[in-house]
Amino acid sequence: MKSPYEILGVAKTASADDIRKAYRALAKKLHPDLNPGDKKAEERFKEIAGANDFLSDNTKRAKFDAGEIDAAGTETQASRERQYYRDHAQTQQQPRGNPYANQSAYEDFASEDDLFAQIFRRQAEQTRNAKGADVQYRMTVEFLEAVAGASKRITMPSGATLNVNIPAGIQEGQTLRLKGKGQPSTGSGGAGDALVTISVSPHKFFTRVGDDIFLELPVTIKEAIMGGAVKVPTASGSVMLNIPKNSNAGSTLRLKGKGVAGKGDQFIKLKIILPTKPDPALDEFLSKWNPDPSYDPRKEMQP
Length: 303
Hints:
Elements: H1 4-8, H2 16-30, H3 39-56, H4 58-65, H5 84-88, H6 107-110, H7 114-129, E1 135-141, H8 143-148, E2 150-155, E3 161-166, E4 175-178, E5 194-200, E6 206-209, E7 212-219, H9 221-226, E8 228-232, E9 239-243, E10 252-255, E11 266-272, H10 280-288
Parallel strand pairs: 1-5, 7-11
Antiparallel strand pairs: 2-3, 4-5, 6-7, 8-9, 10-11
């Protein structure tokens, strides 16, 4: 564990003024505002702030110099798992949190030092100009509303209502930003935004992949064998679809331009459905039907 003298790079005989100058010199290099995103600089800054605080306490410094306490301020010689600056940053001499969390930690030199004075002025200005907080909402829309677009309304915690225009083609998990519909600013920054995250309810027979829509269409044996036009639902309304003769179950047909917002296509997979009740006529027909001997639907499965 480093001593506070080592952390600040001063001798044990350093005066209070020497310690203060060493701290200021290091703080100018390591202050988080001057090193945005630099975690190492941030940790070093915490360390030097703790060392300066420790040595600025005449009682603690005297006890440390006499060997009565260690760098963590304890009266034992046992080592702690954490480095000095992490322990000391939580002492009763400063609030919980980072030692640079507010301006008071630097009042001793901010007024003398233009660099820090400028930092604090900028921080105060940013606080005054900060916009209000954003608010989060989650809205559920129906499948067809997401495909074609819709106008919805949500109720805010205050009881006020907010109209939300759902653009055609919106997807699950997409977030809409409504400018100025969030919490008001405490200063002059204007209101925050409302962020509306969309959930799309599943449809009972449509599914979506990208801009394409998929549908499994039940057909009769006669429609599959003889072919013909059948009515097919789409996201924009029903249309007539021509089923080719001798269509197998699983055959897929395409309706161009009938996907999401007219961008994709709709794919129709045929599914042959037998009558749910006995059909004597169908039974009689099939009992008399003798398929060509070369016809074997399981031919590809033979060993």
